[in-house]
Specification:
single chain; 5-stranded antiparallel β-sheet; 42% helix; elongated
């Protein structure tokens, strides 16, 4: 055999070839995973109170801002509807307009009639009206502005053009801003002016100014301050938007609160995954390196030596079956070429290379499954404050629904007081304006005492024909059917007609909406009236924890709790729709079901990160198995089969190298040995 065959090692391709590449890639992934586990599973600051309270404060601010916007819209709608009805009245002097609007607008605090061309005040009544806030020349339809002062006052100033076009009616109403919220409520204007709606309260002025500056951009969010005096200040902000007014009010709602500061704690036992993963990496390295990579490279060195003519060193034995078979063939070739007896010592069958790869894969999969079954399924502790906040969400939502329902009746009452004639031709334009300005109604119409519709606006009525209620109030007509029918009623002057406004269930669902989880509006029979997600009308709550919680709330004993609902741990809270004389007939309640897994808690982060780590480890294990089978085990088994034929004396079958790596080099060396033996024999 010529010693010139392999004066220099044959060229071998790099990545992704090479017996070391798969192991290096998998170990690199596992090392990065260990770093991930160290930082994401190795214990995190327990900031659960801040992370739960801050988004909730923002949601409270959003609700409050929507409530303020709806208050402005209602003021705009009331004025626009009143102007429509005023158009049918004779005699339109300034004093007559003041008398009419004062009589038909119960919430009005001040009235003014202006000359449209000059802006001159023609008549006024009630409290002074901030007429300087009205751009007289720009008023072509109903407009609104929010006016605030430093004493904590806030008013909606609404203006519209009176019939004839040469006079403006300006109405000032108290802005409805609920201060029944968990925190200090402030209003912020575009120029940075702040108004505290509860004077005397103290808060973090610097943080409030920071929130006001952010709110000036027209976005919502929250800012968190530094811990001090045992609390962490939080200020949430949301812009006040309007629908029917179609104007930018330039006012934002700020909600300042705080959360108790707690010392950072670390979750115990979560370093175990990192430590065990390091052990897994060591075991994988021993299995792949000690049983496969190093033996293959040693066998390659032996094969190169024999193919290069260095025949003085015997080929040793190997623990892996495939490599041991190749070594047997190489040793036989060495002895034959060296002129020694071709008989090789017997070789025992060893473990397969596939066994080592499978064992390494199983080790990684066991770690993956252990992480999933421990940290991935651990019970998350819900702090008491998170439970109380869910109850506050229920209370605030119930108050918002109560306000929307109450306003629905108030709108109809105000409309009814303005009607001087039940003539359908005169009523239709005003009803159309009422339906347009107040989208909470799907349909508004006037019926006689027999229930016959005489004038209508909006969609077709769902209320069944029959005698209408003879008093103001809210009513739920059905408890079965495709759509819940809820309507407000207001008798007209004379008692011979009744104004009906059917509430839009979709709009009610929008009021019930909340961040995450499921919010439901249910009646006294625990049947669903509206919900934040898809629901079937009048579907009854059957889950025992939910029904018990709602029943307690309807009895006036709300009790937020954490229980399992449909296989998921959830925070449950309910609040009744507080009855007034107009809404007590409904006996509705809000129930909120917040899955614990959706709360921003460190325990949930640990679980999600554990799922991610487990998934990455499982993918790495499958990659380890597949890659090693393709680039190491299967090629090695093919070379071993060729080596068996050569060891048995078959020197006529050509051995083709199939891969440009270490195993391919071994195959080329076997082929050179076969050729040398063939030449020597001939």
């Amino acid at each position: 055999m010529s010693s010139q065959e392999f004066d220099r090692p044959p060229a071998e391709a790099g990545f992704p070839s090479g017996v070391r590449v798969p192991a290096i890639a998998v170990l690199t992934v596992l090392a990065l995973l260990a770093v991930f586990c160290t930082f994401r599973l190795g214990g995190q600051p327990d900031a659960s109170e801040t992370r739960v309270v801050a988004p909730s404060q923002q949601w409270f601010a959003d609700i409050l801002a929507r409530s303020v916007g709806e208050s402005v819209n209602d003021a705009v709608g009331d004025l626009a509807t009143a102007v429509k009805l005023y158009g049918s009245e004779p005699g339109r002097g300034p004093e007559h307009a003041i008398e009419y609007f004062a009589r038909t607008s119960s919430h009005t605090r001040g009235l003014a009639v202006l000359d449209r061309p000059s802006g001159r005040l023609l008549a006024a009544a009630g409290e002074p009206v901030a007429i300087e806030s009205v751009a007289v020349g720009d008023v072509g339809k109903t407009t609104a502005r929010v006016v605030v002062d430093r004493q904590g006052g806030a008013w909606t100033v609404t203006a519209d053009v009176l019939p004839g076009g040469d006079q403006l009616i300006v109405v000032s109403t108290k802005l409805a801003v609920s201060t029944d919220n968990p925190g200090t409520v402030l209003l912020s204007t575009m120029d940075g002016e702040l108004v505290r709606l509860r004077p005397g309260e103290r808060d973090d002025d610097e943080l409030v100014r920071q929130a006001a500056s952010a709110a000036a951009d027209g976005t919502s969010g929250y800012v968190v301050g530094a811990a001090g005096q045992g609390t962490i200040p939080i200020v949430a902000y949301a812009p006040v938007t309007t629908g029917a007014a179609k104007t930018k009010l330039g006012v934002s709602v700020l909600l300042a609160g705080s959360v108790p500061a707690v010392e950072n704690t670390r979750l115990e036992g979560v370093l175990v995954p990192t430590v065990t993963l390091l052990g897994v990496m060591l075991l994988v390295l021993l299995l792949l390196g000690g049983a496969l990579i190093r033996p293959v490279r040693q066998l390659r060195a032996n094969a190169l030596a024999i193919a290069s003519g260095r025949l003085d060193t015997p080929v040793g034995t190997y623990r892996i079956s495939e490599m041991n078979r190749i070594a047997t063939a190489l040793e036989r070739c060495r002895r034959t070429l060296a002129g020694e007896s071709p008989a090789a010592p017997p070789r025992r069958r060893r473990f397969s290379a596939r066994t080592a790869v499978v064992l390494a894969t199983v080790v990684v999969l066991v770690w993956s499954g252990a992480v999933m079954l421990t940290l991935g399924r651990q019970e998350v502790q819900v702090p008491k404050q998170a439970v109380q906040i869910t109850q506050s969400l229920a209370n605030t939502t119930a108050a918002a629904v109560q306000g929307s329902l109450q306003q629905g009746v108030t709108d109809l009452k105000a409309f009814a007081t303005r009607i001087v004639s039940a003539d359908s031709a005169q009523l239709r334009p005003a009803l159309a304006e009422l339906a347009f300005r107040h989208p909470r109604y799907r349909s508004v119409y006037v019926v006689d005492l027999s229930g016959n519709v005489e004038a209508r606006a909006g969609r077709a009525p769902l209320r069944q024909d029959g005698r209408p209620p003879r008093e103001h109030g809210l009513h739920q007509q059905n408890t079965v059917g495709r759509v819940p029918v809820v309507y407000a009623s207001a008798p007209l002057a004379g008692g011979r007609h009744v104004l009906i406004g059917e509430l839009d269930v979709v709009k009610l669902s929008a009021v019930v909406r909340k961040p995450g989880g499921v919010g439901r509006l249910v009646d006294a029979g625990l049947r669903t009236v509206a919900a934040t997600v898809g629901f079937r009308a009048h579907e009854k709550i059957t889950a025992e924890p939910l029904s018990r919680n709602v029943s307690n709330a309807l009895r006036g004993e709300p009790e937020p709790t954490v229980e399992q609902v449909d296989g998921r741990m959830s925070v449950i809270a309910s609040a009744p729709i507080r009855g007034s004389r107009l809404t007590s007939e409904l006996q509705w309640a809000i129930v909120i079901q917040q899955p614990v897994s959706e709360l921003p808690l460190p325990g949930n982060d640990i679980r999600r990160n554990a799922w991610l780590a487990s998934l990455v480890a499982a993918v790495a294990a499958l990659g380890l198995l597949g890659w090693h089978l393709l680039v190491l085990v299967l090629p090695l088994r093919r070379v071993a089969a060729n080596a068996d034929r050569l060891a048995e004396g078959d020197i006529s079958t050509v051995i083709y190298p199939q891969r440009p790596d270490e195993i391919g080099t071994i195959a080329r060396c076997l082929e050179l040995c076969r050729q040398a033996i063939d030449k020597k024999g001939s």
